[in-house]
Write a structure and sequence with these properties.
The protein is mainly alpha-helical and about 80 residues long. It has helices spanning about 5, 15-45, 50-75.
Length: about 80
Amino acid sequence: MTNLSQVFQNSTPTVTTFVLMPLIFMITAVLAGGAVLGYPLYLVLHERKWGTAITLVALSLIWLGLIAAIITLLAIR
């Protein structure tokens, strides 16, 4: 991460950078949200399985929290 100036020669931000970075973030967020909430939404709307859908979302959030905790602990070391 400290040698990015060698990779990217143009270090001054441009208008394209200010437009492209949030756009990439939003596209990634939509894809991740669809991946996490798509199947539970299908379960609720088409099969009326609320319990399974809520369990799946809860397990996804627990797994995400566990990964965040591990990364945080590794970063502190």
